[in-house]
Structures are given as C-alpha cells and as structure tokens.
Amino acid sequence: MRKKRISGTAAAVPSAVASNQQALVRFILDERIREFAITGLRWLDMRRLSQDPVYKDHVIYTHKIYGENGEEVSTYSLKPERFALKFGERMLNESNGLEENN
C-alpha cells in the first residue's frame, strides 16, 4: 500500500520496524500523526490512544506557543480528560438521560 502512495525509497518500511510488532504499530501511529494532522481523525486517535494501556505513552501532548520572532513563549500539557467534546445544549435537550462531558 505504501508503494502506491509514497514514491522512491521512502515507501520502504525499515527492516528493524517491520520485524517487530510494537515498533511497526508505533511506526504506523507516527504516520497517522503526519497524515491526519489537520483532520478530525487525528482527534479520534488522540482520544482512543490516551486510554490504551500499551500506546498511551507514544505521544506526549505538550503544546508549544511561539511568539512573533519564532521563539517559544510558553508550553502547556493537554490532559486526556480534555479530549472529550461537549454535546451542546440542543443535543442535551433532545436526548433524555444524556449527561454533558466534563
């Protein structure tokens, strides 16, 4: 599949990664981070993987804020509890028994 999407030698999966299940899954997760960076699918991965006992440490959710000159101004860590979206007033009103995400 990678040969159809990526040209040249970049399509090859490193042999050290291909022969190890954990390394291959982490390789795939890294590719998903790049591929889904500006889509809602990235959020779903963050939500799912933050709860996974094996892969929850794969990505550290630290965000850096940069100033106009490109230097780091501040950082903050996003906690997995923050990966839940609020339902909204209409959804809560129309769904009996639905509780808001906190």
Description:
This protein has 102 residues and is an alpha+beta fold. It has one domain. The protein contains five helices and two strands, in the order ααααββα. It has helices at residues 2-5, 15-18, 21-35, 40-49, 89-94, and strands at residues 62-66, 72-77. Strands 1-2 form a two-stranded antiparallel ribbon. A hairpin with a 5-residue loop joins strand 1 (62-66) and strand 2 (72-77). The longest helix has 15 residues, at 21-35. The radius of gyration is 19 Å and the shape is extended. It starts with a helix and ends in an 8-residue tail after the last helix. The model has no long low-confidence stretch (mean pLDDT 84).
Kindly list the characteristics that best describe this protein.
single chain; 102 residues; alpha+beta; two-stranded antiparallel ribbon; 5 helices; 2 strands; 38% helix
What's the topology here?
Layout: H1 2-5, H2 15-18, H3 21-35, H4 40-49, E1 62-66, E2 72-77, H5 89-94
Antiparallel strand pairs: 1-2
Instruction: Please tally the helical runs, counting DSSP H or I stretches of 4 or more residues.
Output: 5
Average pLDDT value? 84
How much of the sequence lies in strands comes to 5-15%
**Approximately how much helix is present in the residues?**
25-40%
